[in-house]
Amino acid sequence: PQQNAARVRNQGVELNLNWSNRVGELRYQIGGNMAFVDNKVTKFKGDERTITNENLLQEGLPANVLFLLAADRILQTPADMEVVQAIIANAPVNAAGQKQNPFAAFGTPQLGDILYKDLNGDGLINNDDKYVVGNGASPRLIYGINLGLQWKGFDFACLLQGTGRFKDYWLDDWRTPTPAALYLINKEVADGRWVPGRTDATYPRLLTSTTTINRALSDFWVVDKSYLRVKNIQLGYRLPKAITQKMSIEGIRVYCSLENFLTFTNYKGFDPEIRGGNSGIDSFNYPTMKQSTVGLSIDF
């Protein structure tokens, strides 16, 4: 029966620093916060583990850590194919004395396919060669920086936020090397795919949706989702009281702001800030919207 069987411990450090000062008529503020969290499953049915797609739940590891094959290379040259032939030639024999197929689990790779590593050294490439990648389903580092300036009637504010040490699985139906009918293909995958004669491909060849050798759960499709985003920049001006008092108004402030306009990241998906409900991918959620605002604030 289903039960609440796991126990998870989150430990970390949180730091918040702020400073403000004045230089002549210029006032300024700067602040920052940082949280570093270590996540670990401390209890879950002893040595038993649960694997769901690319995620692993096991005692002693972060919750829902990635559990994947290790990609060795994209086969692109005759020398690469000689490596495949050597693996076949050195394959172990079974109890009946018959040589085993080392690629039986995922299919024998051809030119343009991903070659996976035999991490446990048994001569076979299968799910026993998977290993732990990353630190779970959440970033280990979260931080923010805020800046503020006021000079005469002008004011400026900026908020930055970001994450670090966060790896996620990137493969989904939008970025697959095995497109099905009516599916769109990610431009980077399409342009970087292997084709005959190419030796610098960054993605495997395109195959039909029924051939899944290049869709095996592997670290080839792992990306770093660390980012720094300028969440908000705002510039404002408050009219002098000498002007507003003549209008029997306490204060008038005009301002403009930009939200989510700048993001610095190596992530190749839509938005490093969001996570989808299916295998952590972001194709099922809208990216964070950019927004520009012009406003007028009147105090009576």
Short structural summary:
Helices cover 7% and strands 40% of the residues. The protein is built from 3 helices and 15 strands.
Q: Would you mind describing this structure in some detail?
A:
The chain is mainly β. Helix content is 7%, strand content 40%. It is built from 3 helices and 15 strands. It has helices at residues 78-89, 187-192, 241-244; strands at 7-23, 26-43, 50-52, 55-57, 65-68, 71-74, 114-116, 131-133, 141-151, 154-164, 167-169, 222-224, 227-238, 251-265, 291-299. It has a 7-stranded antiparallel β-sheet with strand order 1-2-9-10-13-14-15, with no helix packed on it. It has a 4-stranded antiparallel β-sheet with strand order 3-4-5-8, with no helix packed on it. The protein has a two-stranded antiparallel ribbon with strand order 6-7. β3 and β4 form a beta hairpin. It starts with 6 loop residues before the first strand and ends with a strand. Mean pLDDT is 90; it is low at 277-281.
Labels describing this entry:
300 residues, seven-stranded antiparallel beta sheet, 3 helices, 7% helix, elongated
Provide mean pLDDT, rounded.
90
Secondary structure: helix percent: under 10%
Question: Using only CA atoms, what is the Rg?
Answer: 27 Å
Rough outline: elongated
The biggest beta sheet reads: 7 strands, antiparallel
Count the DSSP helices. Answer: 3
The amount of beta strand, in percent, is 35-45%
* Tally of strands: 15
